[in-house]
Design brief:
2 domains, nine-stranded antiparallel β-sheet, binds zinc ion
Length: 302
């Protein structure tokens, strides 16, 4: 074996061990990783009208609702119930098989209070991970599910988006980097996934839905479409600067028309440059938090 290779491997090994030991000690972090996330998705982005989205956490239901579908005005902290489950709760006849099936998952009305995150997100993300989301609709029929997930000091709050999509039953036919022109001076690289999911309609027939899933990550100073690059930035900032700002993971997802397979490019190129300035405004506020100190003990990190 090559001598140089052995030396290199040994150094890498020692550095890794030291890093693990170091990360286990209480330490001072900068960048306010657990601070309040002041960002919210705007209710309106030019002619795109945003609606909040909620999810039912009853396993056999798992339905998502937009504000219109729910027929409510949004009030902060209000409780909303899943319409489908409420209907079953009130109307299923006791003793029937449907009743039994429903009540294996549902013991009280609290079980179908709608949440701001899907069942899958709840399972994969640490408790309390901030999520901001709107379903944006334009008059030309375009509908985009736009989500920002924010990391804290817990590990795992942002992980490879591919894992979540696969866990939700998605299949990828292609993925690559695509560039969006934000302005004359600014380009933004986003990662594109061509996704397909199989759903069964009410008659039990399977239906394939094709969609585009675009994402990128940013922190106050960096942005990247690559999960690996983001991970390296986090590692270097943490190891050398004790800098641990929140990262945001932004995704824009929408259904594509198989008869017009290239239209997604126009849709994204129209929408992202309109969303981007709202994110930038937030990033500016976050840059001001560069030197805020947080003392963190190993227990808190878990
Ligand atoms: Zn439900």
């Amino acid at each position: 074996m090559n001598k140089k290779l052995i030396i290199c491997a040994s150094v890498c090994f020692i550095v890794t061990i030291l890093a693990i030991l170091y990360l286990g000690l209480p330490r001072k972090l900068y960048g306010d990783p657990n601070g309040e996330v002041t960002y919210d998705m705007p209710d309106k982005i030019d002619f795109y009208k945003g609606e909040r989205v909620w999810y039912c956490h009853v396993k056999q239901c798992a339905r998502g609702y937009t504000q219109t579908e729910l027929g409510v005005e949004y009030t902060d902290g209000a409780t909303y119930y899943c319409k489908d489950c409420l209907d079953k709760w009130e109307n299923l006849e006791e003793g029937t098989s449907q009743y039994k099936k429903f009540h294996t998952d549902v013991k009280s009305k609290d079980d179908f209070i709608l949440k701001d995150r899907s069942v899958g997100e709840k399972a994969l993300l640490p408790e309390g991970t901030p999520i901001r989301r709107r379903n944006y609709k334009a008059q030309n029929g375009v509908q985009l599910n736009t989500t920002a997930v924010f990391s804290g000091t817990e590990r795992g709050s942002i992980h490879r988006p591919q894992n979540c999509l696969r866990a939700a039953g998605g299949r990828f036919s292609n993925e690559y980097t695509h560039t969006i022109k934000i302005s004359d001076k600014k380009d933004l690289d986003v990662h594109i996934i061509h996704l397909s999911n199989v759903y069964t309609d009410s008659s039990g027939k399977p239906e394939v839905v094709h969609s585009i899933y675009a994402y990128w990550f940013f922190n106050p100073f960096k942005e990247t479409e690559s999960h690996t690059t983001r991970f390296i930035y986090t590692l270097l900032d943490g190891a050398f600067l004790n800098y641990r700002p929140r990262w945001a993971y932004v995704s824009v997802a929408f259904i594509v028309d198989p008869n017009d397979p290239e239209r997604w490019k126009t849709i994204l190129q129209d929408f992202i440059p309109r969303l981007y300035p709202h994110l930038e405004k937030y990033r500016e506020q976050e840059r001001a938090k560069r030197w805020i100190e947080t003392i963190i003990t190993p227990e808190e990190k878990k």
